[in-house]
Structures are given as C-alpha cells and as structure tokens.
Amino acid sequence: YKLFWNGQKTAKNGVVIFVREPLAQEVLDIKRINSRLMGIKLRIEKQTMIIFSAYAPQTGESEEMKIDFWTAFSDTISTIPKSETILIGVDLNGHVG
Fold it and tell me: How buried is 48 (Cβ within 10 angstroms: 0-12 exposed, 13-18 middle, 19+ buried)?
C-alpha cells in the first residue's frame, strides 16, 4: 500500500488515503486542499476516479471553521467533470438523536 497524507504536525486534524501498490502507479494527481480535505485522481482502466478523504470540524469548533470546511468541500467537488467518478470517504462528525 502507498499512503497519501495531509495534515498538521500538531496531531490535530489530518486526512489520509491508502492505495494498494499496483493502483498507486495509476495516481495522476494529488490535491491537498487543507488539513481536513484532500483528494487523488486515479486512472482505473479507461475510467478516471477522484477519491476524497475529508474530516469535518467537530462539535465545539467555530462556526467560521465549519463554513470554511463546507465551502472548500463544495467548491472542490463542483470543479470535477461529470465524466469522472467521485468516491468520498468522510467523517462528518454528525450526531444521531
């Protein structure tokens, strides 16, 4: 496996994507947007796939931080052509109940 990582040295936040070694050779691009959001572009046969890893701000974080995260997430997703497949692995820090 090959690890693609983006985060801070403070051990706060951070996102990661693991790719099995034969597929790691097919990574076309890496986008490290911020310590909570990153993506890789991967070629699988004749298809292009964008894989995102995201970590939403948890309860207790500022409203500004939450808005910044969702704005960056939305802006990034909206730039992807419809011909490319998107896969999102995300921790949305949601609450149930």
Answer: middle
